[in-house]
């Protein structure tokens, strides 16, 4: 009965009340992760009001193969998950654009899903299906790094920057970049600080000096995305299973989820306003005719 009184030109049901609709969330996992690693995050997002949560069917071997085949196959699997989430959202979120959460390299894949130009022989172009992109510890800014940073830049980050630089579809898509400053790099410090120093250098090269802040894998400086809302957490590490709270832990989700939700709603308001103008114009033409 929620659709009573609507005409075919009024669009999806969410347009009438973008501030009260609950989001359907798509999670895109990070490098070398697997869907079960996000089961607790799924539960936490649902507990905080997500209507449904879908995790992309991308597994550790897929990431290993990406080093040889590139990220095209991962983008394809992620696009299939997006279509699945969109179908779910039709029922539980009245067709509202998705709220996409990309962890680590998954945040770069999220941006690539919106690319209007072909990527690795695939035309993704899913911007209209996405209302917000929230990245957790994603290395958007890769400078002269080596090792893992150089490889991520070669197979994904540089392509995303070329096709969809910065907050390319704002304000129709809201962008939020979440980082952590929990681990300071120190080549002469604790084991974790020494490892962090090496990893930060692999991401941003010589810009990673002693004292550089990050989540133990990705430095804060690398997570910057032009035009995105930034959230910097104090005490979480990069991924689950690392011996401490991570971006998907309860306290951390409590910080970034409200920001993500507001960015998503703001994008929905923008789209609803544009849709309303379109409807008025069509009705005006019909009246003149």
Find the CATH topology.
Rossmann fold
Fourth CATH level, the homologous superfamily: Alpha/Beta hydrolase fold, catalytic domain
The dominant shape is globular
Percentage of β-strand residues? 5-15%
Q: Which whole number gives the mean pLDDT?
A: 88
Give the number of DSSP strands: 8
* Percentage of residues assigned to helices: 40-55%
Which key terms come to mind for this protein?
single chain, 289 residues, alpha/beta, Rossmann fold, 6-stranded parallel beta sheet, two-stranded antiparallel ribbon, 7 helices, 8 strands, 41% helix, disordered N terminus, disordered C terminus
Would you kindly provide a written description of the structure presented here, covering whatever features stand out?
The protein is an alpha/beta fold and 289 residues long. The protein has one domain (13-179, 214-275): Alpha/Beta hydrolase fold, catalytic domain (Rossmann fold), CATH 3.40.50.1820. The chain is 41% helix and 13% strand. It has seven helices and eight strands; from the N terminus they run βαβααβαβαββαββα. The protein has helices at residues 39-47, 60-69, 72-92, 105-113, 148-163, 191-204, 250-288; strands spanning 24-28, 52-55, 98-103, 130-136, 174-180, 183-184, 213-214, 229-233. The chain has a six-stranded parallel sheet with strand order 2-1-3-4-5-8, sandwiched between helices. A two-stranded antiparallel ribbon has the order 6-7. The radius of gyration is 20 Å and the shape is globular. It starts with 23 loop residues before the first strand and ends with a helix. Mean pLDDT is 88; it is low at 1-10 and 278-289.
């Amino acid at each position: 009965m929620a659709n009573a009184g609507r005409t075919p030109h009024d669009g999806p049901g969410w347009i009438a009340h973008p501030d009260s609709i609950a989001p359907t969330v798509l999670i895109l996992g990070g490098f070398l992760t697997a869907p079960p690693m996000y089961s607790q995050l799924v539960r936490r997002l649902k507990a905080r009001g997500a209507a449904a949560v879908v995790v992309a069917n991308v597994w550790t071997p897929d990431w290993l193969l990406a080093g040889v085949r590139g990220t095209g196959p991962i983008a394809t699997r992620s696009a299939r998950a997006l279509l699945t989430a969109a179908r779910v959202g039709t029922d539980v979120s009245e067709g509202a654009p998705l709220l996409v959460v990309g962890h680590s390299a998954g945040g770069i894949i999220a941006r690539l899903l919106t690319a209007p130009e072909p990527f690795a022989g695939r035309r993704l172009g899913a911007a209209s299906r996405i209302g917000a992109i929230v990245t957790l510890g994603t290395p958007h800014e890769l400078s002269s790094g080596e090792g893992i940073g150089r490889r991520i830049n070669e197979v994904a980050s540089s392509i995303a920057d070329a096709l969809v630089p910065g907050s390319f579809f704002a304000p129709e898509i809201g962008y939020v970049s979440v980082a952590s400053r929990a681990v300071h790099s120190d080549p002469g410090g604790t084991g974790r600080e020494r490892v962090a120093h090496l990893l930060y250098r692999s991401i941003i090269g010589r810009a990673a000096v002693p004292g550089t802040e990050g989540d133990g894998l990705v430095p804060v400086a690398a997570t910057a995305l032009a035009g995105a809302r930034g959230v910097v957490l104090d005490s979480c590490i990069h991924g689950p299973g690392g011996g401490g709270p991570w971006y998907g832990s309860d306290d951390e989700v409590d910080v970034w989820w409200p920001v993500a939700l507001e960015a998503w709603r703001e994008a929905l308001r923008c789209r609803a306003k544009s849709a309303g103008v379109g409807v008025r114009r069509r009705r005006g033409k019909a009246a003149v005719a």
